[in-house]
Amino acid sequence: MSPPTPAANGARDDADALHSLILASLDDDQAVETVSIPLAGKSSIADYMVVASGRSTRQVASMAQKLAEKIKAEFGRNPRIEGLPTADWVLIDAGDVIVHLFRPEVRSFYNLERMWAFGDGPSGTA
Asked: What band does 13 get if pLDDT is binned at 50, 70 and 90?
């Protein structure tokens, strides 16, 4: 296997910087139970998936809007957002990082962390 090219390293650095921005923004907005799932080697859809909860639909919507604004200001990207009108589950596709923001009841119902944790558990399966 050949070493990563400089362009690949630059893309990885951008993904890591975006990931850090997202985690910091969610922390600033008092997101609950933020979980980051590395997807490199598991899926080609993104490098990271971040799952977090807000205490209410209002908080979920606010976190999503602020996050989209910060991503646009810092990286010049317009992330795609789904689910904002009801804000029970908001998906933010920022390219290298996919963010799922939930109300706690909706998050426990879908349990995305378990679905994406294959191979990470003590038994090797999830």
From this structure: confident
